[in-house]
């Protein structure tokens, strides 16, 4: 691995005062190029612009995938990344579906270790804050021909992630737009899935909602994801979530919360969740919680669900009563090293 | 419009000897930037690389759309673009669905007129060859946050398009993978649609086919598109094609061929075409032709169709008998200015 350090670090403490996610990049980025069927030696260099032709295939045909994970610092200034092995595995699953080369472990995992270690002063210590890690790969061949690219770039970016204020949001259940098709790319963390979701989300916002709960594209009868997150529903004291499938992202936070829920003795069911079942539960006063979960925000509780023409308010429970809050607390306590990590989820960075 | 001409043209006659599509770019490109809710003045400059940060949102969330059209030169060195108004209209429909700003007519249409005129020596004269025009727009804001970008770039690239050798291809009818969902982005010419199609196409190639005929994502019972083209089927002497929908691109070549077919007195039906109907026709010896149509190749005839486990050969008819050949000839004669253009499809470039 080639390491070209920045001449002078841009870091200063005011970085951690920012409230903006995804805009405050650290000193370095990692870049590896794929050409002629192989990856070149990855290079860590100062973060900044590179030269790309506007004919780079990613701009035209969208072969682009990414991952998101976080690094945390404990009281002893030790830095940990949460479950990077899961993101590595999913990244290469996405790569396969998008017909892109896989990224070898020594580039992905060692690359992330090295760059996070190099920029470790950028990892904040405050509970709720973290350093966001964004591995991405996109097509760079200079060609406007609708076929797979022969050249790709793998990049790792790091950006400060401020504490996310968990304001409850409202969600509209999709009854027209869809996020993914049977036989499509819904399970892959690919660029096109996100682009396709922005307009329907904006339309939901015009109707007074913050986000969309995506449903199956065939009949809109079963819920699949919420915004860019997995979605969980609590009916009575039962926690429900859809099984992962070719249409649903296999979320790391989803998996972690389900593990914690089961090990806490919660009643968990992983099965298709019908919109009608949610509506009936709402009418019976049994729709206790609906929340999204993902790396960026951990958990986002919803205080209203839009069923067709009916807006159903959901009372936000106290931190002691709310499954979302209980699970979020348990997860973050592990992430921040405040409790034991019986699952081996924390991976230490550097020595 | 700012025009910064190349110091010395890269053009030489050997450009027209190339057999490669989408790699031979002309002297110039047009670039316009969108920021703070408005487009800046478009600039024509020498074609080449620009600086982009790897955090540019197009690489992560795929807000990217494009168009494809062609310029032709007649014997009098007059240059014409084929139906650019249709591409302009579709470009902005794609922009809306992808939650991107629309591009004003004076940037899109005048921009294309100006750059094609400037690079008119790159427009070839040989029948079958042309200059390919690629308008594209993608998200450039430096942010890794899953939301719509606030900054975009509109670019027009020009590349020599060699004569396409119309080798018949074989196609497999999709029975697992899908191109687009109801409520999705299939009708938009957006980057993600292409990326999602490459792996299924490669899988079809492993089965001995060149391309995929996409079917509805619900039951795979009705055909929708072929490869990256619209698809037409001739059963007996009837020409069939699926109606455009939110899942199917509203192709300019498709529309032009349908117009020519109707005006030639062909029996044309625009309605859902069932896979079973095609199979039954094949068994009855009535499946005369299946072909894709699009700007890049005009028409691509298929000599075999894969129905589930059965590979159905289709005899390629003579140019006199083949609807595909007849329609292709009529269309190209208009494009190359060999016959009258009663439809007003040709738009002259410059004086």
UniProtKB/TrEMBL annotation, chains A, B:
E.C. code: 2.6.1.42
Residues with PTM N6-(pyridoxal phosphate)lysine: 189
UniProt cross-references to CDD domains, sorted A to Z: BCAT_beta_family
Gene3D superfamilies with a match to the protein in the record: 3.30.470.10, D-amino Acid Aminotransferase, subunit A, domain 2
Enzyme class (EC, first level): transferase
Lineage top rank: taxon: Bacteria
Any one Pfam family match given in the protein's UniProt record, by short name: Aminotran_4
GO terms under biological process: isoleucine biosynthetic process; L-leucine biosynthetic process; L-valine biosynthetic process
Molecular function via GO: branched-chain-amino-acid transaminase activity
Cofactor: pyridoxal 5'-phosphate
Functional pathway: Amino-acid biosynthesis; L-valine biosynthesis; L-valine from pyruvate: step 4/4; Amino-acid biosynthesis; L-leucine biosynthesis; L-leucine from 3-methyl-2-oxobutanoate: step 4/4; Amino-acid biosynthesis; L-isoleucine biosynthesis; L-isoleucine from 2-oxobutanoate: step 4/4
Catalytic activity as recorded in UniProt: L-isoleucine + 2-oxoglutarate = (S)-3-methyl-2-oxopentanoate + L-glutamate; L-leucine + 2-oxoglutarate = 4-methyl-2-oxopentanoate + L-glutamate; L-valine + 2-oxoglutarate = 3-methyl-2-oxobutanoate + L-glutamate
InterPro entries according to UniProt: Aminotrans_IV, Aminotransferase-like, B_amino_transII, BCAT-like_C, BCAT-like_N, BCAT_family
Keywords per UniProt: Amino-acid biosynthesis, Aminotransferase, Branched-chain amino acid biosynthesis, Pyridoxal phosphate, Transferase
Protein family per UniProt: Belongs to the class-IV pyridoxal-phosphate-dependent aminotransferase family.
Function: Acts on leucine, isoleucine and valine.
Protein known as: branched-chain-amino-acid transaminase
Organism: Faecalibacter rhinopitheci
Lineage: Bacteria, Pseudomonadati, Bacteroidota, Flavobacteriia, Flavobacteriales
